Amino acid sequence: MQDDSIHRAGGAAVSQIPVSPNNPCPFLRAVVAEGFVGGHIVPIPELCRTVEAASGKTGLQMKLVGLKTYPVALIANGLSPLRLLRSWWSGAELDALRNGPLDKHGVGSRILDANAQVHENEIVRLAGFGKERQDPSGGVEIGLTSSEITTYMNANFARAKGHRRWFDRLLMNGEWPVLLDIMGKGEGRGRYLSVAEIRTLFVDRRLPDRINARLASQPATAPAHGPLRKALKVAVWLVALAVAAIVAIAEFPNQVGKIVPPLAQVLPPPLPDSAPAKEAHWLDQNWPTERRHWFHHASQGTATFPVPYAWFLALEQPGIHLFTRPGMLADSAYLERFGFLPSPKSVDTDAASLRRFGYSATSDAKTEPAPKLAAGLQPTPAENFDGLPVGFARMNGVTNPGTGAPEADKIGLTCAACHTGHINYKGVSVRYDGGPATVNLKKLELATGLSIAYTTWVPGRFNRFATRVLGPDASKDERDKLKKGLTEIRDFLLAQIKIYQKAIDSRKGFDGNKQKDTEEGFGRLDALNRIGNQVFYTDLVMSGLAGYEKNLYAVDAPVSFPPIWSVPWFWWAQYDASIEQPLIRNAGEALGVSALVNLSPNPPPEALFRSSVALNNLVYIEDMLRGPDPFRQNPKGFAGLKSPEWPSRIFAGDPAWKIKPERVARGRAIYAEICVECHLGPVADPVFGTQFPDKSFWSSDRWKNRDSADPVLNPVQKGVAGMGTDPAQANVLAKRPVEIPGFFNLQPARDLDSRGKCADLPAYSSTEMPFAIALMIVVDKVSDKWMKDRKLSETDQAALWGPRKNCPNTAPNGPHYRARPLNGVWATAPYLHNGSVPSLYWMLKPAAERPKQFCMGARDFDPEHVGFRVATSCKTGETLFSMTDSDGKPIHGNSVLGHSLEGTPGPGKNGVIGRMLTEDERFDLIEYLKTL
Fold first, then answer.
1. If DSSP codes are grouped into helix, strand and coil, which group holds residue 355?
2. Would you tell me how many other CB atoms lie within 10 Å of the CB of residue 425?
3. Are strands 712-713 and 92-93 parallel, antiparallel or unpaired?
């Protein structure tokens, strides 16, 4: 069936060639109506030439347009082998495109319906996404730029929820962005698509005069005949197959990676879709807005990313884009898909802007004055002028720690990247400091490395990168130097990947088993093994040393990011209770996320152990977390960063969030019966203290130096064997050895006694020792060097070090984990140290009944079970936590067992810690835990 219509040009009626309603493409409807191609079967080369001519491009760029068009035209009528052969041999059937593979069935703009009727209200809606633009030919009109078109397509996809297909959003990239490329006005980022011309295209089936002029000027070509025609078709077919492969890799990288696993390493990592929050709230935790924002972006002296700050901002997202340019790697919306939280450029702005990020314009937090550092030291200012997410920090004033030469600003992750938590519930984002993040750093590392590689490999990408970094007027020498530097970084990263894989493949781990990485996934990180690899291999390589590949170990003991509220008051902070000294703990973490450090023998000896670690900021953060003496508060309590309170006020109308007092009362008694032994009494429940005064947290005999200026809580430690939980993380520091360069002159007995006698310290070789001992000494020397470079007095140095020793934990029960007070426990899912239990409900079930798998990533919070619902069919980009592999064998570090409530505790009870609870008792205890 054909529809016969006319359009009017200059007031005169002009006849058009009828166009079938089964041709749903507005561009093709116009070229058919104008007579540039036939309306039935059109040879694909002819279609390609038509699109090439319409684009206005020349030379190679014009041919690329045709190459992109060919595979699209080839599959437009169907994907069956016979249909593809017909399309290749005869051409695309333009009056049979409806219901083909490219038809989105109403998921797109909806301007043109299935009967080829134009809906004016949808054109009006399209205009609502645009703005007034200056027409290059004069006048003003409504138009949409590339970013506005993207917003429009996202909105179209969103409103089609319930009847859309996963690939429909990808199909949109072959429509409106292509129309912008062909019909757009203006140049660069200001190029826009005229809504008036779109209306003419849909309603009148007429192209702009400038496009018609291009089409009219294309030369006529005579069809090839005989063997030559067949040979040309074979050549075109081969080219089309190659282009189809490129299209598949570009538009469907996740699916290609699954089908051809080796390609997954060179394709962008799949990520969950972004889920914009309709509301966001930062919970009040006793920090004012300004201090909280400083914590989010204060540099700890790290260069986590392998390129300078300015280069990072100039890199594009990895992936091949055929119809559009890729977005920027530093785009907050992209980084949020790795699990990071958006952050404003400044908190010194209007209330409406702050509210979008979850901040209140003012804070009613009651805080002590900002901490004062020793020796007149000051924390460095923190800014976020480029709108990066929480946890990204710019390091200014960088000097090479070995040579002292100035270097470009660096970009690194800071404490907040891993210790800032949030939950989502029905479109509301609740955010809090000090909680476990849900980030996936492995995917971010892969994406950054691929972005660097693609910038050097993909045509045109480096030129755009160089223009952003150097400006449009940079000389060829400047651009060549930039490319050389970026290529060297790419080659170094690729070489390190090969060395790492060879190292872990070539020998068994310290536990005697074959080494293999365990996927960390969203919300988990093997921090200890990563720190070991960074300090005792990568930093040595960066300092010019070779031969330390033996120090590399698989990343196979991932843990959930621990909450850090109250931590400064604990004698032992880590899950495995391994480090007593706060400054060593924090500076060691900074080295682990790539602070610059000089470990070379070549510069002057006084430069050894010099680093970029921002010790002043680390001490300031520790003091912010710590707050004043809790025993001097009335009532007693922590007054630094407070644990977040159950956010029932935010969800006041939702019964799922309402606290049930009768359950709380019963749960309090169960807590006193079962939980107090390890986790001590609750931090802030006066009713508990009244009912169970002998179990009060603040009167516990585990407090040391209670009446001094530095009271400290010695948390309960339990042997791994008795708890029955996964031993992998506890074994890292206990069993992993490292080789040390002899010129380091590490002497454990001497070095670890320098700030207080360490009891029962064995003798170790100066060139091979346990990882824990070596790390403690190296971090000690790095910190000591920082203080001496600033010529601090012994008194000021002692003030920064504080009274605690830098000694290993010599608890007699072997590898162990420490139990922390449960304030804020509701905000720390998933549970157990390795993040293997999705909710409190499953923590209180017998261990054997817990889920062996669940998805990690963009997940909504479950306020009833307090944690995350169990789903084993993961959405695109989410990661699957699994206790076992596909063969049913246990995955190292991923046990879900131990800490089980199912009977009488005792030796040999496989991690049984308490009696079985009834279902009602579980929910009673959960209700009480919500209030802590």
1. helix
2. 19
3. unpaired
